[in-house]
Amino acid sequence: MKSMLITLFTRPVLALTCSIVFLASHTQAAGLIMPLYGNSTYQFNDAVAAAQKVPMIAIINPSDGPGSSKIASIATQVTRLRSVKATVAGYISTVYGGIPLGTVYTQIDRYAAWYGANGIFLDEMSDRTTKLSYYQSIYAYASKKGMLVIGNPGTFTIVNYAATADILVTYEDPLAAGWAKYYQSVWTASYPVNKFATIVYATSSSVWKAAIDRAVALRYVWIFVTDIGGADPFGRAPTYIAAEADYLKTKK
Length: 252
What we know:
Layout: H1 12-25, E1 31-36, H2 41-51, E2 56-60, H3 72-83, E3 87-93, H4 101-115, E4 119-123, H5 132-144, E5 148-151, E6 167-174, E7 196-201, H6 208-217, E8 222-225, H7 241-249
Parallel strand pairs: 1-2, 1-8, 2-3, 3-4, 4-5, 5-6, 6-7, 7-8
């Protein structure tokens, strides 16, 4: 899950104004958006337990995408997640719009047919206007199948991208990469709170609650904070996943 870094919104007066607006309009209970890329029973067990506490979007990634054939063990875990009302989204890397649409459509079809996924997660999403029609086509294709579409530009993007996904991940980076100074783009205030998600990794056990508090203040509904960092921050669940789910349950 790579992100394209652009200049953050750091002007103090404007940032304070945005924060106040977002706090005032955040009325939906928070939920987890949880990448499950380790494909271990332990990670799925943690996700199923958390999904019984708070709304969840679980992102599966069987083989850097759906792979070339169904993996029965992962299909079983998806059934478990769906049974506790989690939305299960299949991971697809779009390489910033460089993957042919036909290939993306095939991956969508495989996630639906092999795993019973009811969503897709478009990673490495471009934020360029030249790729808008590409992502709009994917959105239309997946939506016709009744699938939730989550787009991950990994940072805030232009307002036109609001029409390319049901949910946009507008921050996906380590805590130290700029979370303390990050603010949502002004245009996001015109959209429902459940339109936006954030994934903050390499967040120690001493500050994860503060990271969630800031996410709620910034008008995020879909939130994932983990202490894992490095090259594989989503290979296992956070050490504090149970407490994180309990804490999110208290947030609106």
